[in-house]
Amino acid sequence: MYTRSAMLLAVLLAVPGAAALGQMSRATLVRQSDIIFIGTVTQVGAVAAPEVPASDRNVVVHVDQVLEKPAAVALGAGDSVTVQTAQRGSLKPGSQATFYTTGWIFGQGVAVREVGHELGHSPVVATVQAAAVARARLDMNDADLKAHIQQAAMVVTGRVDQVRPAELAAAPARPKRISEHDAQWQEAIIQVQDGIKGAQAGEQVVVRFPTSLDVAWVGTPRFTVGQEGTFVLHKDSTSGSPNAMLAGRSVPAYTALHKVDVLSRQDATRVRALIRKP
Amino acid sequence: MRTRIIAATVVLYAACEGATRQAPPAKVAGVRVVDLIPASLSGETWQDAEPFLALYASNAQLMAASAFTPNPGGSASATAPIYASNDGGDTWTLRNTLPSQGMTADITHAAGATPSVLYSGILKVPGVPLNELKASDFFSPATMTLQASRADVDQPFVRTAQAASADRVYVGLNDFDAPDGRTATVDVSLDGGATYTSRRIETRATVGQNGPSVRPAVAQDHTVYVAYFGWRATTGSDVTSDVVVVRDDSGAGGATPPFRDLLDPSDHLPGRLVATHVTIPWSNAPTLGQERIGSTLSIAVHPLHSDTVYLAWADRVGTGDIYTVHVRRSTDRGATWSGDLRSVTNATNASLAVSASGTVGLLYQQVTGSDSSSRWVTRLEQSRDGFTTHQDALLATVPANAPPLQFLPYIGDYNGLLSRGNQFLGVFSASNTPDSTNFPQGVVYHRRVDFATHRLLDGTGATVAVSIDPFFFSVPVLP
Questions:
Q1: A117-140 as b/e, with b when 16 or more CB fall inside 10 Å?
Q2: Are both A166 and A227 inside the same structural domain?
Q3: Are B101 and B75 in contact (CB under 8 A)?
Q4: CB proximity B128 to A under 8 Å
Q5: Most buried of the four, A30, A260, B319, B440, by CB within 10 Å?
Q6: Are A78 and A112 in a shared domain?
Q7: What part of A 60-79 touches B (C-beta under 8 Å)?
Q8: Strand, coil or helix: A275
Q9: Quick check: A213 and B405 CB within 8 A?
Q10: CA distance A194 to A191
Q11: Which domain covers residue A128, as residue numbers?
Q12: pTM higher than 0.90 for the full model?
C-alpha cells in the first residue's frame, strides 16, 4: 500500500505543472536555481547558521539529498540549510519538499533564497525527483542553446584554417587605448564544412576572438589552427570594427564569445535537432 | 623594546632578501591573518585576486571586502558577491549583492560615515562599463543601487569622507572618453552618490592617455590628494611617465575648479611632478611571478595632519630589476618631496596607510628567489621615522609558480591597506596551501583544511586543488 501511494505521488510530481509546483513549471524553477535539494523543514522562523539574519520568512531545512549544487559549495545530506522562503508561512515543520534555490549567504553554513518548492518526499519520490530535475536541466540547456542559435547570424561546422592578428579599422574619434582590459583581438579563418544556418559548405568566415588573459575575458572561447567544431557565430558588435578583410575583400566579421558558441563537432546533430524542434 | 623589535626585523629583512630562507621569520605580536573563504565554500578553486577592504570608523566590527571571487552559482548569475564581516574580520561571509553577471572585473569600495552604508565602483560584467553603486546596508540581501554608469573607464578606486551630514565620494578612474587624452579623472559626489561630477586632473599633454591608476586620499580636514601617472611617451612595452600629485584643500567642494591647489614650480601648472620621466614596463602578460605589471601606485595622507602625505609607485630602474617600488614623503602639503625613503626591488601592489599617530604602513608583494624556488612574499612594513628604521611583519611567503594562473591579474593589480585606531588592517591575495611555514605570523582558515598534510578539503573531505585566496590581516600600529 505504501509503495503504491508513493508511486502515485511520484507520478504526480513528475508531471510539470502539477498543483504542488504553484505558479512555476519545474523547468522554470530549474532555470532560476543553482542549488536544488530534497529536504525536511525542521524549524520555522529560525536560522541554521549565526551569520544569517533572523526573520519569520526563514526556515531551517534538513538536507536529505542534494540534486544540484556548484562544486565550490560544501553541502551534503545531513546538513542544515537556512531557506528564505518565497512566501511567508508556506512551509511548516515536517514539510518535505524539493527546494529550488539560489545561493544567498555563504559562511559557516549555507543560506539560500527559495525560488520555489515541490512538496512530497519519500525514497521513491527522491529517485523520481532526481531524474526529473536532471531532465529539466537538460531541457533548459537545450532551450538556452536554441535561443542562442536563433539569435546567431550563422551556425556552421568547420575547421580553423588560420589564426592571425585582427586588423581593426580604428574610428577617427576613438584612438587606440592602452588598457589591461584590452581584448587583444585575433581572427580565426574558419573553413565551413557544413552550413547549418546562414552559411554554405566551402565558405570561409572570419571569427574574432580575444587572446587577452585579462579577467574581463575569462572563460571566452579561443581558437587554434586545426580546431574543429560546431560554431555559433554572431555579427561582431564588440570589437568596434564590424568588417574584416578576407582574400582582399571586406567581409562581415563574426564573434563567438559565449561558452556555448563553440561546441564539439558531434554537437552538430543536437544543434540540427534543436533548429528543427518547434 | 621597540628598538629591539626593529633591529630584529631589519636583520630578518636582510636575511629574507636572499634567495634562500635561512632563519625562521620573526613573529610580530598581535598579528592576525585570516583566509576569507568561508567553510561553506570549501570546494572553491577560483583565482580570488585583487582584494580590497572597507572599514567603518565608528564600528570596528563591520568590514566589507572584495576580490575576483565569482558568484558560486555560476557565470549565468545576475549578481556578483562581496565579502562581509561583523566580527572585526575574524570570520567572513560571501553575499551576492553586486549587479554584475557572476563576478565583476575591477572593484573597489569604501564605507559611508554611517554603518553599514557602502559605496562601490565596479567594472560590470559583461562589457565592463563603470557602475558607481551604493548600499544603505551591505549586509542586506538587496542588490546594491546603481547611482551612475558609463563605458570606457578603467580602474575605479573609491574613497569617502563625511562633510556635514553627507558622504563625499571620490572615485579615481581612467576615463578614455576624457578630452585631449587627459584621461586621469576623479568622479566627485558631494551628496552621498546621488550625483557625480567628473573632474579632469591632468593639465599637461599626454601620450594620448594617462596610466590606469588614479588614487585619491582624503584627510579629516577634507584635504584631498590624488596621485596619477602622467604618461608622456610609449614604446609599447615601456611607458615614460611622470608621477604626479594634485591637491584640493576643500574636498573638491569649493567654488573654484577642483584639484588646482598644488602647482609645480617648473611650469606653474596644477599637479606636482614628484618624479619625472620614469620608465614603467607595461606588460599585460605574466612577467613578475606570473603577474602582469604596469600601474602600481598608492598615496596616503596623515588623517589628522594633512601636511604629511606619502606616495608609492613602481617603475624599472637599472638593468637588473623588473619592477621597483619607491616610497617618498612630503611634509609640506606636497610642495616638496623627499627622495626615496624606501625602495623594494621586484615588487608590486604597494599600498600605503598612515595611522592617526603618524606611523606609516607599507604593504607590498615581492618576488624572491628564482625559477622553481621563487616565492611571492607579502610584507607589511611600518615606520615612525621615514623608514630609517621599520618594523617588518612577514605575512605570507608562498610559491610564485603554483598554482598556475587562470587569468590576469594573478594576485591583483592592487591590494588594500587601511588604518583605524591602533591597527593596520588590510587584504592581500596569495596561494592558499595550508602550510604554516607559508604564513609566519600564523593563519586562520575557515574553509576545510588539513595542515598536517597541507591539503585543502571540500565538504566531503576530498582534496581540493590549491588556488589563490584573499587573506585579511591586522597588525598593531607601532606604539
A1: bbbbbbebbbebbbebbeebbeeb
A2: yes
A3: yes
A4: yes
A5: A30
A6: yes
A7: 70-76
A8: helix
A9: yes
A10: 9
A11: 2-148
A12: yes
Q: How close A62 comes to chain B (CA, Å)? A: 15
Query: Do A161 and A121 belong to one domain?
Result: no
Residue ranges of B 130-189 with Cβ closer than 8 A to chain A: 139, 141, 152, 154, 174, 176, 181
Nearest-CB residue to B95 (from A34, A76, A105)? A105
Q: What is the CATH number of the domain that holds A267?
A: 2.40.50.120
Asked whether residue A91 is domain-assigned, the answer is yes
Which residue is closest to B231 within chain A, CA to CA? Answer: A178
CB-nearest to A73 from B41, B139, B407 is: B41
Name which of A144, A82, A131, A23 is nearest B74 in CA terms.
Answer: A144
Same structural domain, A122 and A66 = yes
Please, what is the end-to-end C-alpha distance for chain B in angstroms? 11
SS3 assignment, position A213: coil
Confirm whether A176 is domain-assigned.
no
Sheet (strand B309-315) strand order: B297-301, B309-315, B324-330, B342-345
How far away is chain B from the Cα of A107, in angstroms, using its nearest Cα?
4
B window 388-427, beta carbon within 8 A of A: 405-409, 413
Q: Between A35, A107, A215, which is nearest B105 by CB?
A: A215
Verify that A162 and A231 share a domain, yes or no.
yes
Asked if A110 has any chain B CB less than 8 Å from its own CB, the reply is yes
Q: Are residues A259 and A188 in the same domain?
A: yes
Per-residue pLDDT of chain B (479 residues; tens, 9 = 90+): 343 444 334 333 333 444 344 566 789 999 999 999 999 999 999 999 999 999 999 999 999 999 999 999 988 889 999 999 999 999 999 999 999 999 999 999 999 999 999 999 999 999 999 999 999 999 998 999 999 999 999 999 999 999 888 999 999 999 999 999 999 999 999 999 999 999 999 999 999 999 999 999 999 999 999 999 999 999 989 999 999 999 999 999 988 999 999 999 999 999 999 999 999 999 999 999 999 999 999 999 999 999 999 999 999 998 778 999 999 999 999 999 999 999 999 999 999 999 999 999 999 999 999 989 999 999 999 999 999 999 999 999 999 999 999 999 999 999 999 999 999 999 999 999 999 999 999 999 999 999 999 999 999 999 999 999 999 999 999 98
- The cell numbers describing B8, all together, are 630584529
Q: Is B465 exposed, middle or buried (0-12, 13-18, 19+ CB in 10 A)?
A: exposed
CATH label of the domain that carries residue A119: 2.40.50.320
SS3 string of A53-100?
A: CCCCCEEEEEEEEEEECCCCCCCCCCCEEEEECCCCCCCCCCCEEEEE
- Chain B residues within an 8 Å CB radius of A215: 49-50, 68, 105, 407-409
* Location of C-alpha cell 547549418: A196
Looking at the domain assignment, is residue A85 inside a domain?
yes
Residue B77 to residue A102, Cβ atoms within 8 A: yes
Q: Are residues A33 and A156 in the same domain?
A: no
CB proximity A19 to B under 8 Å: no
Q: Chain A contacts of B460, Cβ < 8 Å? A: 76
Does A126 share its domain with A186?
no
The answer as to whether A177 is a domain residue is no
ipTM above 0.90, yes or no: yes
